[in-house]
Amino acid sequence: MGYRKKNRNVGIVGIGETKFSSHREDVNQPEMIHEAVRQALDDAGLKIDEIDCVVHGNMELFEMVHQPDMWHTLGSGAFGRDSFRLTTGGTTGGTLVCAADNLVASGMYDVVMAVGFEKLQEGHTTGGITNMADPLWARKLQSGALTAQAANKLIDEFGAERARKAAMIYRIIMDKHAGLNPNSHRAFGLDWDQMDDLIENSPPLIGDLRLIHMCSQSDGACVIIFASEEKAKKIAKTPVWVRDHITVHREETLDLHNNYYPNRTTHRFAAQQLYARNGIDNPLEYFDVFEMYDPSAWWGVDWLREFFLLEGDEHLKLVENKEIMIDGKMPINPSGGVIAANPIGATAIVRTAEAAKQVRGDAGPHQIPKPVNHALTSSFGGTMWTVLTMLEKDLDW
Amino acid sequence: MDNKIDTGDSYVIEGKLALPYTYFAGRVGSTFITTIRDKHKIMGVKCNTCDKVFVPPRQTCERCLEDIRENWVELGNTGEVVNFTVVRYEDKHLPRKVPFVLALIHLDGADTPMVHILDGVDPEEVKIGMKVQAVFAEKTTHTILDIDHFAPV
Amino acid sequence: MSEYYGIKVEDIFNSMKDRFRPEGAAGINHSFGYEIKNTGKWKLTVADGTMELETADDVSDCDVVLNTDGETFVGLSIGKVDAMSALTSRKLKIQGDFNTFGLTSRIFQKYMTPGQETRQEQELLTLKKTISVKQRFATGPVFGKFLKGLKDKKILAIKCPECGRLQTPPREACAICRVRNNEWVEVGPNGEMRMMEYCYYASPDPLTGETRETPYGAIGILLDGCKDEEVFWHLLNPEQLDRVKMGSVINGKVTHGSRLRPVWNENRTGSIEDIRYFEIDE
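YS: structure for the whole thing
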């Protein structure tokens, strides 16, 4: 792989996040984005004139409008300055982080603002996703982002009872985390005594994927400001350093139904490369938090094994022993994750924003009780894209 | 490697993309349209820092990013053509039968021009600098077409 | 009686007659059962633009039955609780068709507390549109050859000269080996069931805007002549969703699924539609 160490260090100096919700009739798209832009600028103590470049992204086809980066200048602050638009599906937010990091690291710009947004209420999410599939074959067959394949795999491998329980434990933990996060779109107040009822009776979507397992459709925006080491130290009291990131993807949509569901391999492959080049032997020990792009509880459970390079049923044990809770050994998504809030073009950048807040120690009610020095975030998008990002509290690697 | 590709099996399949969507105008945009609809008045917003009056109105000034949503300014329903184009191709998404004129109209009291349909004048007779006024629609569509068109004064 | 948001459950029911909109109820003929935990049961009958509400001991014979607690019910009635969220978290349960229950929002005006009617809320505009664009897709020589094969009831796979894997539908290149695929192999048309997406929820087909009937099964079939990952993606006869057996390969251990065969359409045009679906080969 053509990987080279960074030209210079890059720190996160400002974070802005709207509250996520099912609809925002009171604001149009640029106005909603501006809420997050304003927050991030205030968080960094910067004026818009101090931003050198704006990187903007969301998912194509979800609002059925085009060139949103251009008419969003009203809210993004890109008027009269350099700006790029990115769209890589679900990973868009992760790609925004990679791009902003690269733009600063390269020396092209000192301060870059990344803007991710989605107003899913305005479009038709499942229709939009299906429309990305191969028009001659897969469009007829693909069921949006809904799939029970992870459920099938887990049930095949570990038996229905254990697999269904693990998925529901994961789901309830995410809901408990969401209940702590004031920005989350959905927090139902689920509790352990509802396990059996939800497993049996939640309305089915596809196979063993039920309504309760699946992520929400949300509106919202998230903004992160990145700065070069020199500037970051001046701007922020506690800049959060972007240590490394990796993007791995594989071909297209026609292979979705093969027997070895390929996103498992992109996740594991990405994790292996990233850890190897950063000398991390035991990711489960190294990281203090993981903000994962978990589109459903089934995927969340299944992917833990891939991201942490686990074997056998180690990932199930993490879930069953509730080690993934906010006060556990490896807290997963103290924010509540994607199941709690999913404004798709913002979703992946929210992972990095939330992880950075954990590192700064100012996440709010969902702050992890122990110190957070090393954070991992992931992004996921069709067609089997994986983006992983590593954040650090100290510049000491 | 043989670079010749047999294209004998290539053909074209007709398709269609059809998906519903909704756009939320937000508070500022809704006020703009409902004021046109109910009061036949065109409103802009002013950025006091940049000393500019924007129409259509927006929540923030694009230049200094100041929040200007409360700074409503009533504009005249008259203005001046600062540029125009004659639309001559037929397409179903267009608001009028061709040929018709789309003009950039600088409303009295505004600093930014607004695009709208110019009617009541032969396309060949339209001139930059022409004075025009808003003609309001009889039936509302809750859109900017609640101004049906602009016509010469 | 308990109050939620300052409103009693009974207030909602007692005001139904006043909030009834005959024009909204036109054409709706349904009975709606309400079971409110620790409060009571009500039966609402709507027919020919009229309504009748009664308390009942048993509402199980209604077309749809809503089962919830007082707080959720009042919250739903005044717009404080989102129906989809309540349904997801199982605070709200509906027996019968969810959409039928949705009709009640047409039949009744929203419940308002005294004084609320006069409060001025800003009118927020929304624009609803459907984008509809004609498209033309070029098959290219490889996909074109495959689709033409379907006309002759042949399923063609393309083979990678390096790793030998088969792809169907075919791709010009093997993305793993990064070489042009060059050899055609006829596979199937029968095969073995691998896995199924048992779809209860259907999204609109973006090609037509139409929503297909549920449930349906999108399946992966290991066609005869293929191995390992070389699975073919199509549909299952919807009558056979509950009879088909899935196969799997876990850590090298193979479990065989049902044998399947394609059902060809009479008129074949060289498209995915040439195969109507696959069915159990028995």
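YS: worth flagging: The CA atoms of residues 40 and 88 of chain B lie 30 Å apart.
IM: good catch. Also Chain B has a mean pLDDT of 93.
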